[in-house]
Design a protein that fits this description.
By secondary structure, the protein is an alpha/beta fold. The protein is built from 21 helices and 13 strands. The chain has 2 domains: 181 residues, D-Maltodextrin-Binding Protein, domain 2; 195 residues, Periplasmic binding protein-like II (D-Maltodextrin-Binding Protein, domain 2, 3-Layer(aba) Sandwich), CATH 3.40.190.10. Strand 2, helix 2 and strand 3 form a beta-alpha-beta unit. Helix 9 packs across helix 10 and helix 9 packs across helix 11.
Length: 475
């Protein structure tokens, strides 16, 4: 499945042209990033070693239930198709949300498994005259593309009202194109986390790092104990773009991050060289990566997680980088989040730790009473509350009770996400045209896979990135 993401950003109203930030706004962005990173660090530290499920119980000792907050029409006899790239547990959990919609409305909903890139998948469906009614799009660029192709339909009054009641302005804005609301960001992700095997760290005498240098020290300590430090799911190029984005945001800063995301500076810029050089401090050491570069490039994301938390205190790797959704895959092992599997914020490479997050937005492709009702439901705390209880999921919906999340680790991450308000930055590759930032075997995904294979070729990687970006952005 494709994971989404964003970080601290300066708020702009829909349709406002991008402007070069002033020194004042640059300082504000850096301050905001530092504040949110601090909140996240404190939150994760507070719950990293807890084996409590962390739920807030009601008077009878059971977890509080999410009360129905949204009124839905009866849709008996109506049918809907919903497409997303989600698989496995994530797909199964979302189907439970759809089942609740069916129960409340009488509609029949079919989940349609999509392939990455989903825009190409939808294009083939539309060309064949059989588009799904609603699609979950993992990139703001994909929403814009769907609007430009006249595929996407604006949200109606009820869905827009539900969004306004439950979402910060920033999360509303990233689902907006040309002043019209098209996307409901049903799912969010915190993509600035490193998960680790607690027993491996304890045996090695390693401690949670707060800086990049400390991360390298921890990696060497784990390596010296006889365990490979990192598991990398290099078969999925998006995991590599996430690595790059965290390093780049922290090292180059929010202003350059925004400019590179918009291709206002080239990928041949010295700041990109610096970030790739930093990444090579891990990727360039074959013994630091499970299976070496070749093995990593054959390891898909789910396996990169499970191999970190199976094998007792002798797993294939001691750490794995990725977002909060890693919990879904940890759940497929015997490891328990908070005790066997712990987490720390992605360490600071520059002045501040990075905070990158993302999300999947529900977009209507066939406008009808039923599709509008589903969008309204997905914008409500009712829908998000169902999936929150199942784990491996975060919602930007600020009215989902924190007690809905199943453990202390996830409750703290959810609170940090909501408390951040509009202070976040979206995954850079998800902001890019899909040909560059979201297509397997092409663009940024392929260039970084090649870089993982040969981390010495920094100049060649930059040249390839820039050529592909220029073509995709139409420069």
């Amino acid at each position: 499945m494709r994971r989404t993401s964003r970080t601290i950003r300066i708020h702009r109203s829909p349709g406002t042209p991008t402007k070069t930030p002033t020194p004042r706004t640059r300082r504000a962005a850096r301050t905001s990033a530092a504040v949110v990173a601090g909140v996240l660090a404190v939150s994760l530290t507070a719950c990293g070693g807890s084996d409590d499920n962390g739920t807030d119980d009601g008077p009878d000792g059971t977890a509080d239930e999410t009360a129905a907050t949204v009124t839905l029409p009866r849709l008996d006899g109506e049918s809907l198709e919903v497409a997303a790239v989600w698989t496995g547990t994530e797909q199964a959990n979302f189907k439970k949300v759809l089942a609740e919609f069916e129960k409340r409305t009488g509609a029949k909903v079919t989940f349609v498994p999509a392939q990455d890139p989903i825009v190409n998948f939808l294009g083939s469906k539309i060309a064949g005259g059989a588009p799904p009614d609603v699609a979950l799009l993992p990139q703001p660029g994909a929403i814009k593309q769907a609007v430009e192709k006249n595929w996407a339909k604006p949200l109606g009054a009820e869905a827009t009202k539900e969004l306004a009641e439950n979402y910060s302005q920033g999360w509303q804005d990233i689902g907006t194109v040309d002043g019209k609301q098209y996307g409901v960001y049903y799912k969010a992700a915190n993509k600035s986390l490193i998960w680790y095997n607690a027993q491996v760290f304890e045996n090695a005498g390693a401690s949670e790092p707060k800086t990049w240098d400390e991360l390298l020290t921890a990696a060497q300590t784990v390596y010296d104990s006889g365990v490979t430090p990192f598991s990398v799911g290099g078969a999925d190029g998006w995991t590599l773009t996430d690595w790059f984005e965290n390093v780049y945001l922290s090292q180059a800063g929010p202003e350059k991050y925004d400019r590179l995301a918009a291709h206002e500076i080239k990928w041949t810029d010295p700041s990109v060289k610096e970030a790739l050089t930093t990444l090579a401090e891990i990727w360039g050491k074959p013994d630091y990566v499970a299976g070496g570069p070749g093995g990593a490039l054959q390891t898909e994301f789910p396996a990169s997680v499970t191999q970190t938390f199976t094998g007792g205190d002798q797993p294939k790797a001691g750490m794995v980088y990725e977002g909060d959704f890693v919990q879904v895959n940890i759940g497929e092992t015997e490891a328990k989040v908070g005790t066997d599997a712990k987490v720390f914020p992605f360490p600071a490479v520059g002045d501040s730790p990075p905070v990158v997050s993302g999300g999947d937005a529900a977009v209507i492709l066939k406008d009808s009473k039923a599709s509008q009702a589903l969008a309204t439901f997905l914008a409500s705390p009712d829908a998000a509350g169902i999936q929150a209880k199942l784990g491996g999921y975060l919602s930007p919906n600020r009215n989902v009770p924190n007690s809905a999340y199943p453990n202390a680790v996830q409750q703290k991450m959810a609170k940090a996400l909501v408390d951040a308000g509009d202070d976040f930055r979206f995954d850079m590759s998800d902001q890019a045209p899909q040909a560059f930032g979201g297509t397997p075997g092409k663009g940024e995904w392929k260039a970084l896979q090649d870089f993982l294979k040969n981390p010495k070729d920094i100049a060649g990687t930059q040249a390839k990135l820039e050529a592909d970006a220029a073509a995709a952005y139409g420069d």
